[in-house]
Amino acid sequence: MDYPATHGSHAGHDHAHDLPFWRKYIFSVDHKVIGIQYAITGLLFLLFGFSLMMIMRYQLAYPGQPIPFIGNWFGADKAPGGIMLPEFYNQLGAMHGTIMVFLGVVPLAVGGFGNFVMPLQIGAPDMAFPKLNMMSYWVYFLGGVVMLASFFVPGGAAQSGWTSYPPLSVIAPDGQTAWLFGMIFLITSSLLGSINFIVTIVQLRAKGLSYMRLPFFVWAQFVTSFLLLLAFPPLEAAGVLQLMDRLAGTSFFLPSGLVVSNAVLTSMTGVADPTTRAGGGNPLLWQHLFWFLAHPEVYVLILPAMGIVSEIIANNTRKPLWGYRAMVYSVVFLGFMSFVVWAHHMFMTGMGTAMSAFFQTTTMIISIPSVVILTALLLSLWGASIRFTTPMLFALAFLPMFGIGGLTGLPLGLAPTDIHLHDTYYVIGHFHYVVAPGTIFALFAGVYYWFPKATGRMMNETLGKIHFWGSIICINLVFMPMFIQGLGGMNRRMYDGGMQFVHNADLLYWHVVIGWAAWGLGLFQLPFIVNFFSSIKWGALVDKNPWDATTLEWATPSPPGHGNFVTEPIVYRGPYEYSVPGSARDFTPQFEPERA
Amino acid sequence: MHSDPAAIQKSVRGYIMVFVMLMIFTVMTVAVARFHFAVPVAIAVALVIAGMKGTMVAAVFMHLNHERWWVYGTLMLTVVFFLVLLFLPVLTSLDGLGTGSPWLPLESRGR
Amino acid sequence: MNIPYTVEARPDTGLPNGKLGIWLFLASEVMLFGALFSSYILLRVGAAEWPSGELSVPLGTINTIILIGSSVTMVMAWASLKLNNWGRHRLYLGLTFLLALVFLVNKYFEYAEHLHLGEGPNHSTFLAIYFTLTGLHGLHILGGMVVMAYFLGPGAKMWKTEPEQFTNRIEYTGLYWHFVDLVWIFLFPVLYLL
User: Fold this and answer.
1) Within an 8 Å CB–CB cutoff, is residue C188 touching chain B?
2) ipTM (interface predicted TM)
3) Is the minimum CB–CB distance between C13 and chain B shorter than 8 Å?
4) C-chain residue closest to B47, CA distance
5) CA–CA separation, C120 and A240 (whole Å)
């Protein structure tokens, strides 16, 4: 391997310090720059997607009232007089989901943390395919632009849910076409990225870094990449099929004789000869192809978070992780099982009892590895000397929050109870607990933890603690009431909050509670935003290893230079050698040779 | 991987042989279609022949029979998921699955 | 800064980076075409009636022979490099490109015949899946041709500067091309004969 030190004062052959600004910071092929690009773009999209929900929450808490302050920004086709139209509510809903999942969480968790941290943790100078890495980011960026632009298309943005079920999505306005093209960009970006990640982890590990010495974070990213690689293509195919239904008049998803607004659906609107559609299509085909991706996708959302939390817990308990081996086997098994559970999202589609039983069984089985991982992390706290730093607070909170999310999933995975709970607010509560106080808290933890490595400065602890306590209280007030609403039978995706149904009458008040909690949650993100930007300039300076951690990324300068490692990294032991008996310090890094 | 000329020459003979076999199988594929078997039989025969052709392309042209564990492993995994994707959706539409006896005609099983 | 194992294989995996990369890409392509085959199955099983005899078997057979032939010429293009025969390599790579072009020309005639009769993808579910499957396959052929044109043209310089890396890249192109051939081997009986 080439290391800068082995070439004297001239680092490498590509004179990184001579590159013009646009090649150093915009079209960079350095994984650290690309990781930061993904992270900042992802955080901005998270903020934007959350803002969409904060607007929706006003309509739900005070239906039919003009939206305060910003109501006149949306125009008469979306919110005349500042009062949200149902179509606009649906656009906000579909785009909130799409943006949070595909433009926010995954790019931050995988593109951001994966790109920045993983090559450092395996002792690599960069990713296996740096140019491909750069392309992945810019294709993602393009996809994001297309998605945002779709709000300005006549008829508005996609409004058939993030799940885009036909026939509704096929007859929806043009924003849906933009959504489909946007998804094709995002999927392509993901595929290129996942190839890069897998090849890098397999091929570029440092000397002495065997698979069972890898930090759990790397294992999590490894399995996640396989999920992205093999599960995304069917959605890409489905997207092409839906585009053809919308643009070429095909009937992949349209049954024969479909009647829309009292008329049989014609081939293409605006065409001189509106022959009826061929029909013969199957709306369930979309659901199968969509959920074939979207179920592994939820593991893409959670696995990097588990990886981040594992690193932070080991570091802040000053103990090895309990059950590392069990965690590794579990995450691999989880990845495999995630491909055979998808139809638990389709229990209400009238499938036969045998297949329903099959999917219920696989769904119950897949809960086991998740529980193993959560239990291992909980047991890692036993007898620990816990440092309650801001990243550790978020990592600790992840555990019970993910626990609630996981447990509430059980009645959804069993068809008899799912009959009552499907498409209710209970589902929204369940998946948000896993993703919001689950994954997003883990991502915050990761930002506080690796910020010093990326910038050479610490974030402010006081602002961090305000961010944490405000967020955890508000976020539980947002999502816990949804279980009550769902159990009471309140449907999701209703623009009036379910007002039109008598059985919801006693549940409507919760929308007010949730709304104020959501706006409070928004306010408590301000300390984070202020902290993030001000610490870049004024944060306390740090050296290589401010957390006294054991993994390879802490062997590099903060921030690492081009090529990362000054001398070739060699790994001598496992990733979590904390409090080794007989050792002078309470941590023994992977990269330090044996003492004589 | 073989790098010396003699080994490559041997491979070249292999490529020509596989080409001839593939031509034969192609002719067989078309010829068999003329027999108008019942649909399930026709599907089975077509897939078996195509499978054999595909295996030859993969094993010989793509050097899969000399390939490394990582490649094999990824492909095995992919084949499993491919089969899952191919067959599970249609199985969910067969409502009579799990009822009655597999030896009775489909009609009596609500299909 | 040099990325290790770009050209030479990593000892414990026996693979250079690009080879693992291209196989992973092909795995994702298996799932992409798999989704379309799955769609075919679901749509056909659910259809009251399914057309047959609408496609030209002779033209399809000729195209099958052409594509298989191009797979042979492709692997020969790589083998020629291993035998250090630059001239033979150019001949075989050029032949592969030409055969691919003939395939696409045949496809054009096939499509034109249907479209002139007003039988587009919106005409029936069978034609919809036919146009989509063969269309996506055709786009993959086009992509392969672009890569081959690059290695016949501006990319050929690399043989002088980095012969081993160039040979590897031709091998990876070949792997992609054989995959495209493999997909057609299944497409042909499924669409034309069943």
Assistant:
1) yes
2) 0.96
3) yes
4) C186
5) 16
